[in-house]
């Protein structure tokens, strides 16, 4: 059986197709090991199920129109006012909201390789986007030269992720702060995706939205709190910017269980610190497992995932099929602009799953060596 793929040519391929894989393999979804989606390997905070059950009767009524209580909760946590925040069902709807809500008279620029939904949202709004790619020889690091190339296009907006997806690279905090100020000075929107910032220990630019109307930040609760099935995120921006966006939001876009989950997760003191420590250990364990097998080059990463470039001669599709037959999903990164066939993105997962990946990969490499030897002789 082939790994599941996008059913429509205009639908971008993402990770996390666990249920589709289970159907294709005719096995329970709980037996699928998912390295293709970058979700917290610790799982959800303890007690979340009980909290959701306790609040279940809230589903007898319509949810809050725009999850206002979550905005107030975020305000209490950050010291910003509630009108800086807009909760939503994941960041993807916010990308589409931004594409519709900003009057982009000049084409935006996406600094990549990057998540395909930035370009997809802009395209659906009829806004063409330029691309500025970081370079493999720089280990995909954003540099002052990268930003220079972006500004040279005289963009109306710059889309950037910190850390980047799929490379896992952080932007130097000083450089990022300079970029935010420069965008404000030039009247350029800076759409900063911090979906994975909680896994890095790096400071967020969130406090800067109070004084920078050109800065818009996307934050995900889905990744850090392992809630991809509930969909939960928030957008942060200056109140003047938010006043342009909020009227375009559909009412009741967050369900009552999602709002309850948000309150419970945001109140979990210590969970993010435990996650950070564990992710660093598991990332190193994943690097060591891959290094021992030597399937290719592992690029530096500060996030909860790695980018791997398979060595020449290894067939990426054959490897992905082999892992899939063993119930292991990895993200084929060939469709990220700036990458090519042979690039894989691997999430940081628990130790037992890393061992399963290493065993399946080792088997594939043994078969590959036997095939190569037979071809030579």
Topology, please?
Elements: H1 18-25, E1 33-34, H2 48-54, H3 68-78, E2 85-88, H4 92-101, E3 109-112, H5 116-124, E4 130-133, H6 144-152, E5 157-161, H7 173-186, E6 189-193, E7 215-220, E8 233-237, H8 239-245, H9 256-266, H10 271-293, E9 296-298, E10 305-310, H11 316-325, E11 328-329, E12 331-332, E13 343-347, H12 351-376
Parallel strand pairs: 1-11, 3-4, 3-5, 5-6, 6-7
Antiparallel strand pairs: 2-8, 7-8, 9-10, 10-13, 12-13
Helix pairs in contact: 3-9, 4-5, 10-12
Would you write up a description of this structure?
This protein is of the alpha/beta class and 377 residues long. Helices cover 38% and strands 14% of the residues. The chain has twelve helices and 13 strands. Strand 9 and strand 10 (305-310) form a beta hairpin. Residues 6-12 have low confidence and may be disordered.
């Amino acid at each position: 059986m082939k790994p599941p793929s996008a059913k429509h040519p205009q639908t971008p391929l993402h990770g996390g197709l666990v249920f589709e894989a289970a159907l294709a393999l005719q096995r329970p979804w709980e037996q699928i090991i998912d390295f293709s989606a970058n979700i917290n390997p610790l799982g959800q905070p303890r007690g979340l199920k009980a909290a959701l059950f306790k609040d279940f009767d809230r589903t007898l009524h319509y949810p809050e129109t725009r999850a206002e209580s979550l905005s107030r909760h975020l305000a209490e946590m950050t010291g910003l006012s509630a009108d800086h925040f807009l909760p939503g069902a994941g960041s993807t709807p916010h990308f589409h909201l931004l594409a519709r809500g900003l009057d982009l008279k000049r084409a935006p620029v996406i600094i990549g390789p990057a998540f395909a939904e930035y370009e997809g949202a802009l395209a659906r709004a009829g806004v063409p986007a330029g691309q500025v790619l970081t370079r493999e020889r720089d280990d995909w690091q954003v540099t002052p030269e990268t930003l220079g190339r972006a500004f040279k296009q005289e963009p109306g907006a710059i889309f950037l992720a910190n850390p980047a997806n799929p490379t896992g690279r952080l932007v130097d905090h000083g450089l990022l702060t300079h970029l935010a100020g420069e965008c404000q000075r030039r009247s350029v929107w800076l759409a900063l995706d911090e979906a994975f910032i909680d896994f890095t220990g790096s400071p967020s630019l969130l406090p800067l939205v109070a004084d920078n109307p050109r800065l818009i930040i996307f934050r995900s609760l889905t990744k850090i709190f392992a809630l991809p099935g509930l969909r939960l995120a928030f957008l942060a921006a200056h109140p003047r910017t938010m006043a342009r966006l909020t009227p375009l939001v559909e009412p009741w876009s967050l369900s009552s269980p999602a709002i309850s989950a948000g309150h419970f997760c945001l109140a979990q003191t210590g969970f993010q610190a435990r996650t950070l420590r564990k992710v660093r250990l598991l990332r190193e364990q994943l690097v060591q497992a891959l290094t021992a097998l030597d399937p290719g080059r592992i690029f530096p990463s500060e996030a909860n995932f790695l980018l791997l470039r398979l060595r020449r001669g290894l067939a990426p599709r054959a490897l992905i099929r082999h892992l899939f037959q063993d119930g292991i999903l990895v993200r084929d990164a060939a469709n990220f602009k700036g990458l090519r066939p042979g690039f894989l993105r691997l999430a940081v997962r628990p130790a037992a799953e890393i061992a399963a990946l290493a065993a399946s990969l080792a088997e594939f490499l043994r078969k590959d060596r036997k095939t190569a030897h037979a071809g030579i002789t």
